[in-house]
Amino acid sequence: MAFFDLPPEQLETYRPELATPPDLADFWNSTIAEARAFDLDVALVPVASGLTAIDVYDVTFSGFGGHRIKGWFLRPTGDAVVPAVVEYIGYGGGRGAPHERLAWAAAGWGHLVMDNRGQGSTWGVGGATPDPAPGGQGVPGFMTRGIADPHEHFYRRLFTDGVRAVDAVRTIPGVDPARVAVAGGSQGGAVTLAVAGLVPDLVAAMPDVPFLSHIDRALTLTDAYPYRELADYLRTHRGAEEGVRRTMSYFDVAGLARGATAPALFSVALMDLTCPPSTVYAAYNHYGHPDGSAIDVYRFNGHEGGEALRWARHREFLAGVLGGSN
What we know:
Blueprint: H1 8-11, H2 24-36, E1 43-46, E2 54-62, E3 68-76, E4 82-88, H3 103-106, E5 110-114, H4 154-169, E6 175-185, H5 187-198, E7 204-208, H6 215-221, H7 227-236, H8 241-249, H9 253-256, E8 265-269, H10 277-286, E9 294-298, H11 309-321
Helix pairs in contact: 2-4, 4-5, 6-7
């Protein structure tokens, strides 16, 4: 795949005007307040994982609508108070198996892996969280679930679950609530940016090749799924474009991330058809905490981006943010 988006020198300064609804702050403030009216009710069940240096827990907490959200919590064995990373998973995936994600706990961190409600059946080894909310008419996938009304949309629920995951990890004994970071790639990167914009006191955000940024541009720039789901819907629902764009504007993370107060480490891939580079740069250049933030560029990669190389960069970035210590 050749370069298909803006030239690199234009990407670096690409800061488009965003189609942000005037009531965006009220929409999300009321959404989070409604979710926090439910008892968080964090439940931790020890798991016999066979690991000798890492403790594993099956975790459940209340997310959007009080719905019970699953996850894994891993931490180094012992009584030390540790910082924590909350990780969000990519589109279609679930929390998987706990032994798939050992690096953070092995490095001395707590690690909450949040399950994706209603997902976990596309790749990996599955999830455990249903989505009990109705979705209305839509094409296969999650982009058009609740597309007629932002209050009913799937990503209102998932982003809220992400905020509540941070609330949950801060209640776990042995976690330092003042040292919590968020991370994820693709859809997980979108949730990372949304949470960074909605939670004011994180230590860092680490979104890799984030999805759902500058959606207006992505809709007509790429033919790849999941953005293609919106085009598939509009192909049948002729005349619905204005309403679709309005609904999705509430979940455009380039707009949400303008409220972020934590330094961020982004990554972008210049041959990425799934999350085109200009859409990633739109979020990066609008990001609310430019001081101390950075973006890693993978010139010849597609949506896979930096893959396993990202953990070392995340660890290095967090060491800098926290002054070289956990």
